[in-house]
Amino acid sequence: MNTHIKYSQKVANNDKKNKVDFIKTVVGFVTFIIVFVVIIPFVLVKNDLYTILEAYMPNLDIIATVITWHGGPFNIWEHLYPISPLTIYGFSSQTMINYMALLGLTYIVSRETKKTNSIIKGWSLAFVMLLMTYLLPGKFILWAMDKTSQLLNYPMVDGTVTFMVGIFITILVILLESYVIKHFRGNLANFAKKIINLPKLLKK
Which residue ranges does UniProt annotate as crossing the membrane (predicted)? Predict the structure, then answer.
């Protein structure tokens, strides 16, 4: 059975029976904040890995997607970031994570705008980030994890290997986004400038 369907059915059943563990859900959310929103960014800043940090922060939703699939220790992340929230806990958690990811994205765009004194250069970063953060990878990662799970179909290794596949693709997306931001800033700015100047060209 498709992982999306299995997960949705499980959450739906829990919701109907009021078996969502509030304490476990809160512990899972707080743990996610401490590890992925505080500790990892702090380590990146301490090591001057700002380019990776720029790609990391807007991708919090992807990280949440992968660890929700796995569930985490004692299933504390079972309701962290559901595909289709069926409980108020899942909805609240998903909304907050999306909000933090968007705050990270808008901060990076704003910082680039201020640093370069150019709206075009700041806005151009959003071209990559919005695509690689929100529009493309999430569904693809889950699809890859589902396919891996179906191919293995062996309980002893299925969950662990599939989880590692999700983590690997997530790291790959973050590093790829970081590489594009670092090496193609000028190209992105030129592209953004052409789009901004397009109305003027059409008036001629």
Answer: 21-44, 88-110, 122-143, 163-181
> Any residues with CB less than 8 A from the CB of 62 and at least 6 apart, and which?
133, 137, 138, 141, 170, 173
What distance in Å separates the CA atoms of residue 103 and residue 96, rounded to the nearest whole number?
10
Sequence-distant (6+) residues with CB within 8 A of 25 are 76, 78, 79, 80, 89, 93
Q: Is residue 111 part of a domain?
A: yes
- 125 domain-assigned: yes
Separation CA 56–CA 153 (nearest Å)? 32
For 117, 135, 180, the CA distances from 193, given in Å and listed in that order, are: 14, 22, 18
Helices 88-116, 119-130: crossing angle, 10 deg rounding? 150
When divided into structural domains, the chain yields a total of: 1
Whether the full predicted model's pTM is greater than 0.90, yes or no, is no
Within-domain flag for 204:
no
| CA-closest candidate to residue 176, choices 47, 62, 46 | 62
Residue 126 lies in a domain: yes
Cα 58 from chain centroid (whole Å): 6
For residue 173, which phi and psi values (nearest 5 degrees)? Answer: -65, -45
Range of the domain at 27: 3-198
Please tell me the distance from the alpha carbon of residue 76 to that of residue 89, in angstroms, as a whole number.
12
